[in-house]
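Quick one: sequence plus pyridoxal-5'-phosphate SMILES, need C-alpha cells.
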Amino acid sequence: MIDLRSDTVTKPTQAMLDTMFSAQVGDDVYGDDPSVNELESWAAKRHGFENAIFCSSGTQANLLALMAHCERGDEYLCGQQAHNYKFEGGGAAVLGSIQPQPIENELDGTLCFKKLKAAIKPDDSHFARTRLLSLENTINGKVIPLTYIQQARQFANENALALHLDGARVYNASTALDIDIKEITQCFDSVSICLSKGLGAPIGSLLLGNKRLINKARRWRKVLGGGMRQAGFLASAGLYALQYNVTRLKEDHDNACYLAESLNHLAAFKLNPDFVETNIVFAKLDDDVDQEKLVAYLKQNGILVSKGQPMRFVTHNGISRQDITRLIDQLKQYFT
Ligand SMILES: *Cc1c(COP(=O)(O)O)cnc(C)c1O
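Reply:
Sure thing.
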C-alpha cells in the first residue's frame, strides 16, 4: 500500500528494529531504564535544555507542558488552528482545569501580537490568569519564520508569559529553514517533539524544559497513567530516529514538492506549489468530483489518501518518488 494519509504511518526500518532489540532496559518509573535515561539526557543537551521527559504521544507531551506551566484557573494563548487546542480532545480544560484562549491564525500560521496583547487578561479576580503562549511549528505544513519566533520570545518576556512550542514536526521546520534545530528550540521555555511522525519511530514524543518544569511534568505523566516501565525498547527507537533520520527529511520535502507540482497539472486539483514548504501538501479538489468514489478507487489500486477539502497528502520514509508517479498515473486514468 502507498499510504499518503499521514507521516504517523511510518514503520521502523530493520536498523531501528535491531537497535530496539538490543536495547538495555529497566523500570523507568524507578528511573532505572538506561535507554530512556540516555534518550532524555541526549535530547535535553541536543536541544539546549536542562531536562527532557519521554512521553507516550505528542498529545501527552503537550498536555504535560500545559499542566506544568499552568495551574487550575490559568489560561494559555494559542492559535485557533493549534493542535493542542483543536485536536487534543480539550485535554487542557478536561484534565488541567486550564482555559484556552485561541486567536485566529494569520495565513502564514503566525499569531498577531496585537491580538495576543489584547487577549491577555488584567490581574483581576474576574479573569483567568494568562500564563502561557503556545505556538506550533510546522503548522499545517507551514514553517514559522525564525524572526517571528524571536519576536514571540520578546513578546513573552515583556508580558511575563511562558512560551511553549508544539514542535511535533519542528525538525521539518529546521530542515526547510536549513538551520540547526537549537536555533528554534532555544527560543522556548518548553518544546514537544514527535518521534513517531517523519522521524520514523513507532511510538513516543519528548517534552523538553528546565528541571523544575520537567519534574512537574513527570508527576503529571504518572497521574495520567503515562509512567511506563521497560520503555527503553521504545526510547532506543526514539534516539535512533533523532540520530539517523533527521537528514532524510529533506527527501520528504522534495517529494512533497514533486507531488504538488504534479497535482497542479491535473485539472481536478487546485493548489499553489509555492505554498508547499515541508512534507504536507494541501490540494483543493474540484467540487464536481465525488471524493468518496475517488478515495475508494485509489484504495482499490493500492493507494491510501484521506478524505477532506482541501485534500491532505503527506510524504514520509515509506513514500518514494515512484510511489508519487504511481498516484499521479492512477489519477490521470481516473479522470480520463
Ligand atoms: C501529531 C501532532 C500532535 C500529537 O501527536 P500524537 O502523537 O498523535 O498524540 C501534536 N501536535 C501536532 C502539531 C501534531 O501534528
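The first strand starts at residue 2 and ends at 3. The chain has two domains: 12-244, 248-335.
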